[in-house]
Amino acid sequence: MILAVCPNTAIDRTAVIAGFAAGKQHKIARVHQQPGGKGVNAARVLKALGQPVLVIGFVGGETGRQFAHGLQREGISAELVRIAGPTRTCLAIVDPRGHKVTEIDELGPEVNALEVQKLNHAVMQHLGRAHFAIFSGSLPPGAPVDLYRRWVELAHKHGVLAAVDAAGPILSQALAAHPYLTKPNQQEAEEHLGYRLSGESAIIQALETLAPQSEIVAITLGARGAAIAVPGRRWRVHPPSISASNTVGCGDAFLAGFLTGLERQLSPEDASRLAIAAGAANALTSGAGTMPAQQITRLETAVQLFPLD
Ligand SMILES: Nc1ncnc2c1ncn2[C@@H]1O[C@H](COP(=O)(O)OP(=O)(O)OP(=O)(O)O)[C@@H](O)[C@H]1O
Ligand SMILES: [Mg+2]
């Protein structure tokens, strides 16, 4: 079983607005709504790929009820900790004309120490049954910044492999506990390292810097694929060229694909092919993680892998 810990859950709304521009009035042609948050997006893809998964996260208010019902409808198992504040709403505006996605994310509800303690309890209760544990996304205001670090340490104690997908101080803290897998995107890696990943040598330098802190480092680079390091091997993976529709959740799909590959006992190289295919398949759909598994399989054959040395 894979545990997907997603403290800052959300109701994700995706609106399609052709020619979207700031400062203008727009009519929304279509709105799609579904439970979201990075761990939830990853869980949706894990489920599509046949992996048993349990989501753990906070929920509150009317949006929290919608979130819980949405997960239930999708058949995604979850242990949800009720809080006083309402679950946040995140809006993605997809512009099919300008080929751009604008994300407007609420920070999330303020949580108190008792609520964090309850979430911690839920993680402790289920961690032992997991093979992998994903700690993914931002934390709601009020949650301690070292929460993922503590959970990675806890995972080590239980012999569970921890995968971290986070940014800023949450990522830096978590890296200090040496997670099994770390998946920053380009911006998150640049912010953490303090330099731009503009060329191949900077990307290799980034892998070398992060490798001592994580057994598997996967830096995702959007349409340019990913750069990956495992002990003794580094490689680049390139996605097939596609016409992207909505790239929100591509990194979450990538992570789900990678862990599925490892669960299937594939080599990290082959797991990264599956990851890239899942990321690309996600870019083709409008709601995060809503691609059919066959789409991933179809794209996998066109993924290209190049060793780095
Ligand atoms: N336009 C694209 N075309 C093909 N593949 C893509 C595209 N965008 C993303 N991908 C695939 O998805 C993977 C993850 O993308 P990206 O680096 O954008 O993740 P991310 O920024 O962490 O996304 P999120 O946090 O929204 O889940 C890439 O490594 C790539 O394989
Ligand atoms: Mg990401």
Describe this structure in words.
The chain is globular. It contains 10 helices and 14 strands. α5 links the parallel β9 (161-165) and β10. Strands 5-4-1-8-9-10-11-12-13-14 form a 10-stranded mixed sheet, with helices on both faces. The chain has a single domain (2-15, 30-307), classed as Ribokinase (UDP-N-acetylmuramoyl-L-alanine:D-glutamate ligase, 3-Layer(aba) Sandwich), CATH 3.40.1190. It is α/β, with parallel strands linked by helices. The structure holds adenosine-5'-triphosphate and magnesium ion. Residues 185, 220-223, 225-226, 239, 242, 244, 247-252, 254, 276, 279-280, 283 line the site of adenosine-5'-triphosphate.
CATH superfamily: Ribokinase
Per the CATH scheme, the topology name is UDP-N-acetylmuramoyl-L-alanine:D-glutamate ligase
Count of alpha and pi helical runs: 10
Instruction: Please give the order of strands in the largest beta sheet.
Output: 5-4-1-8-9-10-11-12-13-14
Distance between the amino and carboxyl termini: 35 Å
**Helix percent band:** 25-40%
Domain module tally: 1
Mean pLDDT comes to: 97
Structural class category: alpha/beta
**Largest sheet: number of strands, sense, barrel closure:** 10 strands, mixed
CATH top level class name: Alpha Beta
| CATH architecture assignment | 3-Layer(aba) Sandwich
Bound molecules: adenosine-5'-triphosphate, magnesium ion
β-strand amount = 15-25%
Radius of gyration: 18 Å
**Residue ranges: pLDDT <50 for 5 or more in a row?**
none
Give the helices and strands as they follow along the chain. Answer: EEEHEHEEEHEHEHEHHEEEHHHE
The number of distinct β-strands equals: 14
Shape: globular
